[in-house]
Design a protein that fits this description.
The complex is a heterotrimer. Helices cover 76% and strands 0% of the residues of chain B. Chain B is an all-alpha fold. In chain B, helix 3 (39-61) packs antiparallel against helix 5 (78-109), helix 5 (78-109) crosses helix 11 (232-244) and helix 8 runs antiparallel to helix 11. In chain B, 46% of the residues are buried. Chain C has 12 helices and no strands. Chain C is elongated and about 80 Å long.
Chain lengths: 331, 293, 291
Amino acid sequence: MVDYALETFDLTKIFESREDGVRRVVRAVDHVNIRVRRGEFFGLLGPNGAGKTTLIKMLCTIILPTEGTAKVNGYDIIHEPIKVRSSIGWFHGETGGRSLYWRLNAEDNLRFYAYLQNVSRDVAEKRIDALLEFFDLSRERKKLVKDYSTGMKVRVMLARALLHNPPILLMDEPTIGLDTVSAVETRNLLKALNRELGKTIIFTSHNMFEVEQLCERIAIMKSGRVVVDAAPSILRDMLRDIRAVEVEVRSVDNLSELIDMLSNLSIVRKVVDVKNDPIAVTVRLQVDDEYEAIPLIADRLHRLGVKVSSIRRSEPTLEDVFVRLARGESA
Amino acid sequence: MKVEDILELLKEDKPRVSSELTHVWAVFWANFKIFLSYRTWVVMETISTVASIAMYSFMGIQVDARRMAIAGYEGVSWLSFALVGVATANYLWMCISRLSHSLQHEIREGTLEPIVSSPINMRSYIIGQSLRGFLVSGYFMTGVLLVGVYVLKAPLTIRLENILSFVAVILLMIASYMGIGIMAAGLVLVYKKGDPLTFLFATVTEFLGGVLFPLKYLESIPILYVFAWLMPYTYALDACRKILLTDATIISTQVITNLVVLMLYTVVFIPLGLRVFRWGLNRIRYEGTVASY
Amino acid sequence: MDVEKLIQIISEDIPRRKTPIHRIILSFIIRDFKVWWTYKFWLVLDIAGIIIFILTYYLFSFITTPQHIQEAGYTVGGYFTFALIGIAFQHYVHFAVQTINESIRDEQWNGTLETILSTATDFKVFLLGEVCFSFIVSSILLLMSILIGIMLGAVFYTTPSSILAATILAMLLIASHMDIGILSTGVIMKVKQGSPVTWAFSWLSQLVSGVFYPLKLLPWYLEWLGKAFPLTYSLDGIRLCLQSAKDLTSPAIVSNIIYLFIFIVVATPIALYVFKIGYDSARRDGSLGQY
């Protein structure tokens, strides 16, 4: 039997709310079954609102599931919450540093959580020193957190997740509020923690390139469901395979005619997205070959009398991937 | 500091032992530090507390000693009478509201989520938070009594056995209300606001407990009189007055029934409070509202 | 609705006149009332708090002697009536100051202050609007407190002309405290913390203005300090009117009125000036929208 670091069994969370007497039901997480092996670097990808954070919070035992359960480090999240909590380091980037005590300084914040995590005093002090230095906060360690920038707060929160050296790290958008340099350093640290110390890392993001670069395996979530669970090579192939062109034209009289014309071109696979602003219309297309498509589209639009601002090759986005998945073109 | 150094550091690990005492200490210590950062508040609160007892000393001039005697307080100065009332009522109110107040703050600031996601037993959290409350409100209570005795010359019995008895009754009083405090905190978790209710609770307690007047005069309104003797605070205040104004101690027969009643409330309400709190915490974990920013 | 229709409606312009001030003020009052009404629960608690407070002093009055109160010249009613007037009017001004503070703080917090100040309304008109509302609400609560007192057996000795004099004193009292409210709001905008001015005023005036005891019982330095507070003069005047049926022909009443008048004349420009400083500094740091 394989020893999984994390295993979910039909994990489901349904939020019910009442707005003006109308009951609203949101399936934030919908029968999710994932398994993460020990030492695996696992990426959870999805647009905002896909249910990533709710899933992570259920694994942290902060949110109780409506249905199903999960095992973290072999412990049940419903019945053995304290054991689960000792096994995880949780980071939640979306809060933008709100989950710290603003009226304490960085080291007092870390000390507090070190005690809660049962780290012995001497070990805690050593780690606090080192982590503050690593995250470039040594000079400001005595300053109250309320005077920190968002980036600094995020770094304190990252340090907090590592303090007690947990076997499993739940990293919810860890690079969200960081500048480019800190983001790179954080990614390097996570990679090293995974490779050298065998930490299991669950990493969520809505940035595909980040996930593709770091993770050994990825799951893509959409509307509470896991739609893909595969090696990143699949994603990489798909990304390599997606060729997209973005066309920007001055506002047009008949938008649907324009879209029809574009989607009927033989080189266009699919119209992915249309943004209609008063200043410009932007149409995103998946094509067979962008270098052939660009002159062809330019020519057609010119003949139609549409004023073109730009046509350019574009990096694939998560939206492109979903379109591909919907058409069943995945492996 | 390089990545390798961090890895090296994390490798040398000592076995972790869970200790509830450490958790209690951590919660107490962090919250006490936060409290100290509100220096202006402490200064302002101290000044207005002193001002309010000065006010009682002027009110006391108008009191008719004969009418105090009718109510069973013969030869007792009204200022001392009121001082014991005000000191204990404020202490009780600060202790009880502290927990729900902090929780409300932690939910709003998002700091409760990392606490719930760490392996701390909620019991330790409640004790740590409450200890902070006891200490801070103890400061104000001691201040009120000291200013009363040494500045305003209110006569109180301050022999060691009376002081020790007073402390014991205060501890019992807090214990008897602890359950209600925890229950309020549990409700705050779910409804996110509790200030209005605790405020009403404090006003009613202060009034019915007879902080400013002998309860004998409440007999003219029988319903309120009955309610007054349903509250543990009334028993606690009565015992405190017997100890500090007359010469009773904790082993005196006049005090013993009061202590029994307080113990009874303690035994009934603490388990009830913990149950409500657990219900509240699970409910917000189910609703996903451990933080509500 | 499509864009063309909307444009058509907006561009149908009637020649613009300045909205008359009373209309603006009325719209502020209506808006404040609607917002305030959503806090019904707080209102109930406020009222419950006042009732309990009055009950406390009702019971306290049983153990007092009326001797000191009669010596101070308040002939009828004894301690309970004396304290009732003190409590009711102290709440009256406290509530008025608090409402101004809170409504402006809320507006700053919610970001609506920026919106209002970006409309073509002068800030003095805006302030007046806030003030009028708090005046109406606190007057209702005042009448209610007096009524509760009467039900508990408070006794007054009045004539129509003494009630008139008391009303004038009450108006002057509230006007003087509006200045304090405006001033402390200016301080709030500048320091962005709970107002120390309101705080100091509330405990100091409770201590030295004779809310719970006649001023004669205070040591000379506190009695002297009390003379700086408008509440002291109003309470003395109002008690003379309601407990001894004094009216505008009495020199004691007239001198109280003159003092309050001077206070208002001096304090209003100062309060507006401090408010303007706070307001301008908040605009300078761009912190109107935050608190």
